[in-house]
Amino acid sequence: MYTVSNRLKIGAIILMALGLLGIGFGFLAAPSSIEESKAMMASHDDGHGDSHGAETAHGETDAGEHAMTPAEHDEHVFHQLSNKPWAALYVAAFFFFMIALGVLAFYAIQRAAQAGWSPLLFRVMEGITSYLVPGGIIVFVILVMSVLHMNHLFVWMDAEVVAEDALLQGKAGYLNPTFFLIRAAIFLGGWIAYREYSRKLSLAQDESDDNSNFKLNFRISAAFLVFYLISESIMSWDWIMSVDPHWFSTLFGWYIFASMFVSGITVIAMVTIYLKSKGHLEEVNDSHIHDLAKFMFGISIFWTYLWFSQFMLIWYANIPEEVTYYVTRIEDYNLPFFGMVAMNFLFPVLLLMNSDYKRLNWFVVMAGVVILAGHYMDIFNAIMPATVGDQWFIGIPEIGAVLFFAGLFLFWIFRALASAPLQPKRNPFIEESRHFHY
Amino acid sequence: MASKVIQAFYNDDDVLMHAVKKVKAAKHHIEEVYCPFPVHGLDKAMGLEPTRIAITSFMYGCVGLTVAIVMMNFIMIEDWPQDIGGKPSFSYIENMPAFVPIMFELTVFFAAHLMVITFYLRSRLWPFKKAENPDVRTTDDHFLMEIEIHDNESELRDLLSGTGAVEINISEKDLH
């Protein structure tokens, strides 16, 4: 039985404490009035002119009809600056939640496919998916706070904005706060219910003397995947795409799925390598790591394929209401936008192309760190342009939020890993998994 | 020069794998194994050198990518400048997104086709070549392990019959 080392526990708590300080600083540093915001902008004096107002996503709603007066511009910047700590919190909260959700999809696929190679890793995956509960609740609370107008991450929740916007009025049947929260509750409930039930069956299988738990787990996993594909798509429109409520992309659900899938697989590989380095999971061999690294490599390319497909069609067609999405990102987010492609595509492709490197633990971890940072940037690029515009910065609030959720994530998943034996005993495929070799 | 070889037949790939390991453990050199389908891990069990075809594949991919860039630059930018997607910039880099599918396809095309051709050349396969496998059953449902005999016929016969071979033959073979 695995017990969490004190160093890890203290490390996670320190991360959380530092993170809380960072988040708190972010909220304190945000301006509380337009005057304060003007003073902050004047002291920065970074030479950005008034021209940017029309380019940002919020600007798109207002500036369509009339040019901004200086007073309106000041108010606009004030809103962006007061959104900043919230957006930082939301991006990090969603990013770590998404890792657990990606692992859940991977786990359900292994179950539904009755994969023979992976049962040795099931407890690792179950440990990571345990974060769905706290992570999901935190994301849900942030969404409820948005609905209660404690922040302005989602412009369509603002009745005054909708009143002046024919497009948003047309979408109000779907994009309204009540239905939004009902959907979120159904999705989170479904994901968490599957996770808890499958985990229960997985543990019961170890103690049972037939395979009924295993078979039931197979059936519910196949059914869950159907639910997951639909709910994950709608979740990505709701929680991410709707921050730009005028813009839409039909492959957005797949795009976010690729991001969460590759992040999840990366974390499975990293946690497995960590546990192995501590002398646990003795039966996990190089071939298991090799397979996970192949998935990291393959899904990184899949992500790039979707990223580019989405970009190229919009770039080619050049329709104004679609292309603003990328204009904002290329003009105001040039480095993070293209930097993330380098981190999520070039880096894993070149590092993990060679078959032998996929078996070197330190190589997989190194590539994994870059992939995780790259996919954090992916979510950052999806949320920030619509919420803070060109006022973005990766500073104390952003890093603090990442540290806090990283600490919580580590604390929670290792606590769950320590609550059951790390190797399933009576999975019918455990022999195949133990002898797995490439 | 002709030499004598012993040929052991198997009708199951798992039995064959164990036989190969056993023969290697007895320090005999396996001349060749003929299979109706690729057997996973056989190359490692036989102690063959790892393939270098992946390296050639990477190089062919780079050639394909270069060909795509040069070709599209000539066709779409230099020879007959095209206004792509209503963006008349006439620059390769600014129109690059439109060329990415072609760059990708030609990379894959070159890597795949040249790799297959390399494989044929390296395996000395060409049209109308006489088949090398000593027994037609190796194209159907039998596996054949071939070991050269150096005055140890009875020893090899004993070893192979203990590995689950369904038939053992001795035959003359031209060395290549």
Could you walk me through the main structural features you see in this protein, from its secondary elements to its overall organization?
The complex is a heterodimer of chains A (438) and B (176). Helix content of chain A is 74%, strand content 0%. Chain A is mainly alpha-helical. Chain A has one domain (6-30, 69-427). The two termini of chain A are 28 Å apart. Mean pLDDT of chain A is 90; it is low at 47-65. Chain B folds into two domains: 2-50 and 141-174, ACT domain (Alpha-Beta Plaits, 2-Layer Sandwich); 53-122. In chain B, 46% of the residues lie in helices and 16% in strands. Chain B has five helices and four strands; from the N terminus they run E-H-E-H-H-H-E-H-E. Chain B has helices at 13-25, 42-46, 53-79, 96-122, 153-161; strands spanning 2-10, 30-34, 143-148, 167-174. The A-B interface holds A 308, 311-312, 315-318, 353-355, 437 and B 41, 54, 58, 84-87, 97-98, 100-101.
